[in-house]
Each structure stands twice: as C-alpha cells, then as structure tokens.
C-alpha cells in the first residue's frame, strides 16, 4: 500500500542517499545483546514524571541516597504548533513540548529512558544524549518506527547540563532538530553544586529555557506557509534552513512563550538557576538589569563556575547554567543578546521579581527634565 | 505644493503617451465624504498621559474636568482603498496592501497619517486631522481605558508601579491578534464607532509628556513635551516613536507592543 507515510519515508531515503555513502557506518543501527551482561538488580529504581518546560520535575539538589536507576518516559508527538501569531511549524516533539522536558539525575545514577513512537506518527525517530557515552549518544540503539518503542539505559558519568536531541540519520538530523526535537538533562554532582571556592550553593527556583531556531518558508504572498503535515513542509523548509537565516529564534517554542501572563516569576533574594540549551545554533543569554553570579558557561559542573558575567555563550549543541540571586524588584528581560534575534525574531523572556526597591543599588537622582542648554552640559565633552 | 508639482511632471508624460489627447484642466478631484459619528459637546474627565512625578515618585496625573467641544470622528478606520487614492495622488507614502477590499490601512506611521489628513482636507475642503489622545478616549467611550493605578502602585517603591503596569497591559491586551480582519469585525461601540480598541492601535496627535505635580498632587506645576514620540490608542495606551510603522518590533525590552498601527481622523 502506498501511504503518505511510505511515500515520506521513501522521499527521506532518496534525500538521504548521497549522504549515506560516506556515513553509513556511523549510522548503522546496532544492538548490545552480545556484549557482557551487567547486573544492576541491586540498584533501587525510581520513576520520575517529567514536567513541561520552563518548569522542571521535583528533584533533590544534594542526593540523600546512593545511585539508582531513574526511569523516564518520552513520547514523540508530531503536530502542528504555532510559533507566532502568523506562523506555524509542523513540529516534532518529545512529550508534545518544544523544547522537550528537562530531566534531572545525579552523577552515578543510571538513566533508563523508554522512547515511544506512537503509530499515528509518520516518521522514524531516535534520541542522542550528549550526556551518554557510546552508540551515537544512544541514537543507534533507539531508532523507532511509528508504533514502536525502545528502552535505553546509560550511566550518568559526567556532571553538567547536556542537550539531547533526535538524530535519525542524514538530512533528517538537522530537520528534526529545527522542528523542535531537543531538550536537556541535568546531571548534578551527588553533593550538589559548588561555587568557585568549592562551597556548596543551591537554588530556590530552576527554569529551563530551551532556545529554538525555526526556518519557516514564506509563500509568494509573503505570508508564512502552512503545511498539511511534516512531509509536505520538508522541501520548502530545507531551502530556508540551508540559507542559515532563521525566520524565528524563540524560547520555549514560540514567540512570547515566556512573556506576558506566562512570564517567569521570582522574588527578591531568591537564587534562580537558569538552564539554557540550544541544540543547533549559538546563543548568548543576558539578563537585562541582572547578572550571572555563577555561570557554568559550557554547562559542565566539574569546571569552576565563572563569576559576575554580563552575557554568557551557549555553543550550538550545548547547554549552560547560570545562577543568579535577584537583588532588585521589577521586570527583567532574559534575552539572547543578539538583539535582533531577541526583539525582532522572538528570543525574549520576562522575569517578574517582587520585593522592595533598594536605592543603594540604583537611584534616579534627577528624573528626566529639561535642562538649561546655555549653562548646563558644557563640561561633558573633553 | 507637492500636488501641483506632481501634476506638472505628469502632464507632459500624458501628452507624450497619448499623443492626441490635449491636456485640459480636470475638475477638482472629489472623494466621498467619510462617514462620521457626531459626539456632542460636554464635559470630559481626563488624565493627561505620560510620566508625572510628585517629589521623587512616579504617580498618576490628576484627573482634570474639561469643557470639550462637539467632535466629528470617522466611524471607520481609514481603509487600504482610501489610503491608496492618496498614494495614487502622490500625496501619501506607499504602504503595504493585501489587495482585499474593506480592510483598514495598517503599517503606517505618524507622518503617513498626517499626510493623509492633509490630502483629505485638500480633497474635501474640510479640515481633517488626527484626534488628540483625549478626543480618542471620548470616541472610544466604554472601550477606552484611562484608569489610574491603585494606591499600592503609586507608593514610594518604583518597582511596584512597573510590575503593575506590565501586568495591566498584559491583561488589557490579551493575546496578540495578527490577522487583518475586515472592517466591522470588532463591531461598534456605544457611540456607533466601528472597530475601536480592536487589534489596530490608532495614532493620535498627542506627544509624550513629562511633568511634576504640586505637593498635594492636585495639579500639574511643570510640563514638557517630546513629539518624537506620540500616544497611540487601543486596548491600552502606548507611546510609539513617530516613524515606526510596525510597533511589534518598535517596543522596548520589557513592554507589551500594539498589534497593528492604523488611524482614523476627526473633522474640525
């Protein structure tokens, strides 16, 4: 039977063909059943339900017990999502959100993920964890067709925040990623986070900011094109992707996802950990009016955090973490400090911080008012 | 001035192209008079917009009671078809059009709107101009929003007012609506004025104002205006730089931008 799905898979294979020749070895699907068995039956198991970003599931910052097998479930959902009032994307998602949910474990824990690809989906998917070792990050052990599931277990050996994403081979890799298939995992040191002197630090709130670049084509009338399904969108989207200029750069899947009545909240005096991931493209988070007190710019907790940063760099394909204690109340903008991307393409979040204004930190000494141009302002220039 | 120059340039072209047609003075072009709504003279309670201080605190300007004259204001926004006639006459700058009839002209800045007003005045022999912020609020009637902040937000802590203002704009505006709807989509208000406070914010003549209040807050002692920024009115008041045509990307880092910029005029 020639279904839309087979047609699409066929199209994908044809598109992939020239690439396969040079990378077929790396993309070979494998299994691990022949390797020496490992006995983890003595380890406790815990099942964790994931939260929708920017929120993160409840977790301990300092582990109170020994290593465990932490079970997560991700269901892949292909669906149209609105990116802006006038723009839609045929999104591919982990658990229906862009970005996918953030997982938190401790160093030495085992992550056991069940990946479901429901039968109503059209495409093959998998998952590549940057936190995992071997098998393309798990990608070659988890390629699931619609209607299939796979279970992957990996040991969390390196503490830090890491990207995960779908990587189903060839040109499908970038397309799936820029269609929304990425998320993050945080592997905490068992004794929690430390500052630059090695002293323990903790956070009162954690927000996960997943940044995405979208490449939505425009039709002849100048309006963003809307498609019946992902397959139909592929060719036009690829053309925009290959020019490397995104139509949208957004936090949490759409313009305004973290502003207005969905703005983030905090209180003066609270320490907030902002975890920021970008699976495909460089970003430069900046908190307007605030700082990063302790910033793990490359996201890996065995490195000392940098202090007092104004802007930090997130390399495409990585996650970073910034800890900041809000000192002043008001409205803060958390932006990608490529300001064109922040203001015109969408990469802005707002944080509303309650508290009492501190005039020692900042005071308006003279409110905007007219000055005497004949007598004032002459000493300003050298 | 501009118009006669345009005619001077066009006329020889017409002669060259048509060859046989001799240039004869055209009768004054006429446009249909826009449908207006009459608002009777009366009294208006009005709070001047902008930033006002009492001592070091930002506070609401006091509400003043003013006697106001009768007002005739366009029932509808200026449409793309209306505006296109001004563009064709070389009196207005071109603006985007989606070619659909019965849609308001958007993506216009303050100068575009005032150029249209001049052209319409020329065409009709009447005086058309943008409304002031106060006039717009009268016309908006029950759809206008001119509330002060609660005492809590006018206290000594500047962050309270800032947060209150952010939350209020979010609540007033709701979700952005970036579809260009046919005129009439948002219905008429109590005065019969169409589409006011829909998804098109309207340019006004009113400039940004700074002022200080008396110690008791009852009146304004000093005031200065900056006309590079004008009040635009809709679900909430916004101050927009006069050359901006798309305020979505003309807003500041932590504010709430209007969806579309358009206009309607009043007749003196």
UniProtKB/TrEMBL annotation, chain A:
This is Copper-containing nitrite reductase. Binds 1 Cu(+) ion. Belongs to the multicopper oxidase family. It is an enzyme of class 1 (oxidoreductase). The gene is nirK. GO terms for biological process: denitrification pathway; nitrate assimilation. Pfam families: Cu-oxidase, Cu-oxidase_3. Its cofactor is FAD; Cu(2+); Cu(+). One of its GO terms (cellular component) is periplasmic space. One of its GO terms (molecular function) is nitrite reductase (NO-forming) activity.
TrEMBL record, chain B:
Signal peptide: none annotated. It comes from Pseudotabrizicola alkalilacus. InterPro entries: CTDL_fold, Sulfatase_Mod_Factor_Kinase, SUMF_dom, SUMF_sf. Residues 34-267 form the Sulfatase-modifying factor enzyme-like domain. This is Formylglycine-generating enzyme family protein. The lineage of its organism: Bacteria, Pseudomonadati, Pseudomonadota, Alphaproteobacteria, Rhodobacterales. PANTHER family: FORMYLGLYCINE-GENERATING ENZYME, SULFATASE MODIFYING FACTOR 1, 2. Pfam families: FGE-sulfatase. One of its GO terms (molecular function) is formylglycine-generating oxidase activity.
């Amino acid at each position: 039977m020639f279904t839309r799905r087979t047609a699409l898979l066929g199209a994908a294979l044809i598109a992939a063909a020239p690439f396969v020749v040079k990378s077929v070895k790396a993309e070979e699907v494998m299994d691990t059943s022949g390797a020496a068995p490992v006995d983890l039956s003595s380890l406790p198991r815990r099942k964790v339900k994931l939260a929708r970003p920017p929120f993160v599931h409840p977790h301990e910052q300092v582990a109170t017990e020994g290593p465990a097998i932490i079970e997560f479930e991700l269901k892949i959902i292909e669906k149209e999502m609105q990116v802006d009032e006038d723009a839609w994307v045929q999104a591919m998602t982990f658990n229906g959100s862009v970005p996918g949910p953030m997982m938190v474990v401790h160093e030495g824990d085992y992550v056991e993920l069940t990946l479901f690809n429901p039968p109503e989906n059209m495409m093959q998917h998998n998952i590549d964890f940057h936190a995992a070792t071997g098998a393309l990050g798990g990608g070659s052990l988890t390629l699931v067709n619609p209607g299939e599931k796979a279970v992957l277990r990996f040991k969390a050996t390196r503490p830090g925040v890491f990207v995960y994403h779908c990587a189903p081979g060839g040109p499908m890799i970038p397309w799936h990623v820029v269609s929304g298939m990425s998320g993050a995992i945080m592997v905490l040191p068992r004794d929690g986070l430390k500052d630059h002197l090695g002293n323990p630090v903790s956070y009162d709130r954690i927000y996960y900011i997943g940044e995405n670049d979208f490449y939505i084509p425009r039709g002849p009338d100048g309006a963003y094109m809307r498609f019946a399904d992902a397959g139909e969108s592929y060719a036009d989207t690829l053309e925009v992707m290959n020019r490397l200029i995104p139509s949208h750069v957004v936090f949490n899947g759409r313009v305004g996802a973290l502003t207005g009545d969905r703005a983030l909240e905090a209180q003066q005096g609270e320490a907030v950990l902002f975890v920021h991931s970008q699976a495909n493209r460089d970003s430069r988070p900046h908190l307007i009016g605030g700082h990063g007190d302790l910033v793990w710019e490359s996201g890996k907790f065995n490195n000392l955090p940098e202090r007092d940063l104004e802007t930090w760099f997130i390399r495409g394909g990585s996650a970073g973490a910034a800890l900041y204690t809000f000192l002043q109340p008001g409205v803060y903008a958390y932006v990608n400090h490529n300001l064109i991307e922040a203001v015109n393409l969408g990469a802005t979040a707002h944080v509303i911080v309650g508290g009492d204004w501190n005039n020692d930190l900042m005071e308006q000494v003279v409110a905007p008012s007219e000055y005497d141009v004949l007598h004032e302002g002459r000493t300003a220039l050298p | 001035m501009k118009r006669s120059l345009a005619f001077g340039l066009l006329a020889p072209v017409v002669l060259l192209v048509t060859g046989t047609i001799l240039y004869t003075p055209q009768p004054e072009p006429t446009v249909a008079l826009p449908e207006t709504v009459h608002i009777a003279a009366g009294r208006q309670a009005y709070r001047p917009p902008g930033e006002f201080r009492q001592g070091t605190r930002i506070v609401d300007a006091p509400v003043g009671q003013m006697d106001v004259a009768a007002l005739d204001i366009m029932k509808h926004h200026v449409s793309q078809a209306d505006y296109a006639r001004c563009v064709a006459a070389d009196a207005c700058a071109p603006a985007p059009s989606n070619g659909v009839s019965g849609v308001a002209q958007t993506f216009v800045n303050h100068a575009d709107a005032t150029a249209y007003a001049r052209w319409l005045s020329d065409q009709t022999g009447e005086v058309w101009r943008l409304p002031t912020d106060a006039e717009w609020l009268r016309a908006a009637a029950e759809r206008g929003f001119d509330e002060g902040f609660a005492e809590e937000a006018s206290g000594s802590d500047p962050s309270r007012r800032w947060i209150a203002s952010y939350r209020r704009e979010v609540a007033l505006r709701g979700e952005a609506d970036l579809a260009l709807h046919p005129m009439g989509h948002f219905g008429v208000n109590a005065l019969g004025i169409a589409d006011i406070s829909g998804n098109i914010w309207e340019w006004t003549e009113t400039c940004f104002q700074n002022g200080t209040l008396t110690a008791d807050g009852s009146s304004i002692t000093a005031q200065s205006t900056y006309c590079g920024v004008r009040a635009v009115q809709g679900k909430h008041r916004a101050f927009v730089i006069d050359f901006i045509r798309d305020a979505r990307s003309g807003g500041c880092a932590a504010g709430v931008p209007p969806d579309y910029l358009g206009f309607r005029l009043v007749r003196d």
